[in-house]
Amino acid sequence: MHTNPRKAAIIGCGSVGASIAFRFLQQGLFSHLVLLDANQDKAEGEAMDLGDGMPYGAAMEIRAGGYDDLADCALVVITAGANQKPGETRLDLIGKNTAIMQEIIRQLTAREFGGILLIVSNPVDVLTHAAWRLSGLPRERVIGSGTVLDTARLKQLLGEELRVDSRNVHAFIIGEHGDSELPVWSGANVSGLDLDSFCRIRQKALRPADMRRIYHEVQGSADAIIRRKGATYYGIAMAVGRIAACIVKDEHAVLPVSVALQGEYGLEGLALSIPAIVGRGGIEKVLEIPLAPNEQAALLASARQLLKAMEACPCSGQGPS
Fold first, then answer.
1. Is 168 exposed, middle or buried (0-12, 13-18, 19+ CB in 10 A)?
2. What is the Cα–Cα distance from 164 to 199, expressed in whole angstroms?
3. pTM of this prediction?
4. Average pLDDT, stretch 95-112?
5. Of the candidates 14, 255, 264, 307, which lies 20 to 30 Å from 164 by C-alpha distance?
6. Cβ atoms of 215 and 151 closer than 8 Å
7. How far is residue 222's CA from residue 219's CA, in Å, rounded to a whole number?
8. How far out from the chain centre does Cα 236 lie?
């Protein structure tokens, strides 16, 4: 099936899906955008609402559609699934959202979908691995939004702490997009200066207690937002827009996306959020970045926790050869 590089679709038109559609309209990445939801009226309403702003945004066609309209999409973003409730972890959603993912992939494979899948639904690492196994697509074309948003939160908080533009902060959150995620402090820097060197120049101390506080703020950010407004959607829409831009513009950018691991870091049989080079074909290269011994141990612990949670998932295990 021929794919249209300027055509994308979003499956799931809740707050996250609608916010991503709005972000795509702002970016002007696509000329065609299809919205699909189990509630057809919801998809049509979102398309109509977005269409009203077209004279002030990018020139594109936005409409509600069905699976037949997705076969030639270069990118399909999947946000469908149950939302995380206050007090729930993302891993609590495994059972119900895996069943939803199975049906979505069945519909797409029946139409010989030839584009890239971008999984946003939670738990994103589990569902990315499930989508890869169910679809039979090469792993470079099945990407999870991973810890791109968590990394943005880390960079923002570090920028505030160090009184520097967060766009000059380079740091990663890796592992599970969830409670066992970890910051890679050993590789964090500000425009090439490691944190210790920057803090000496800035005359600003960054103590271990400060680093722990920042990490816990990142780790608890989603739950804090959910308690206050019921859901998170603007931040993840910006993160998905960034991933989509890397694909459409063939940027070869490094992002901590969720990808099925095949021996990297000594891990396989699961997907984790790991820095990878992202371009037009999806994942170009998974990067095994240097980790301090405690970070390596934390990554392996994160993987063990995720594998244990995946035991209840019918799509766990090895992917296609």
1. middle
2. 11
3. 0.93
4. 91
5. 255
6. no
7. 8
8. 8
Show the tokens assigned to 113. Answer: 């979908």
Helices 148-162, 234-248: axis angle to 10 degrees equals 110
Q: Does the annotation count 177 as an active-site position? A: yes
For 153-203, write each residue's pLDDT tens digit: 999 999 999 999 999 999 999 999 988 999 999 999 999 999 999 999 998
Burial class (CB in 10 A: 0-12, 13-18, 19+), 37: buried
Reference 234, options 9, 8, 15; nearest CA is: 15
Residues in the chain: 321
Lateral strand order in the sheet of 253-262: 61-64, 32-36, 4-11, 73-78, 116-119, 142-144, 253-262, 268-279, 282-286
Give the Cα separation of 107 and 89 in Å (integer).
28
Rounded distance between C-alpha atoms, residue 10 and residue 105, angstroms: 13
Q: Where do the H-state alpha helices sit in the chain?
A: 15-27, 40-52, 94-109, 124-135, 148-162, 195-202, 208-229, 234-248, 293-310
Residue 211 CB contacts under 8 Å (≥ 6 apart), including other chains: 183, 185
Q: What pLDDT shows up at residue 321?
A: 31
Catalytic residue among 2, 129, 170, 177: 177
pLDDT at 317: 45
Phi-psi category of 183—alpha, beta or left, where left has phi over 0 and alpha has psi -120 to 50?
Answer: beta
Q: Which of 143, 173, 311 is nearest to 242 (CA)?
A: 143
Average pLDDT, the chain: 92
Residue with tokens 């699961």: 270
